[in-house]
Amino acid sequence: MSFDQVRSLLFTPAADEGKLRRGLNAGADAVIWDLEDAVAASEKRSARARVVSLLEEDAKAPCLRFVRVNGHGTTEFGEDIAALAGAPIDGIVLPKATPAGVAALGSEGPPVLALVESAAGLRFAFETAESGRVEAFLFGALDLAAELALGALPDGQELLAFRSHVVLASAAAGIDGPFDSPYVHLGDPEGLRAECRRSRALGFRGKACIHPGQLTAVHEAFTPSAEEVAWAREIVEGFHAAGSGVASIAGQMIDRPTVERARRLLDDAERSRT
Question: What is the tally of structural domains in the chain?
Answer without folding.
Answer: 2
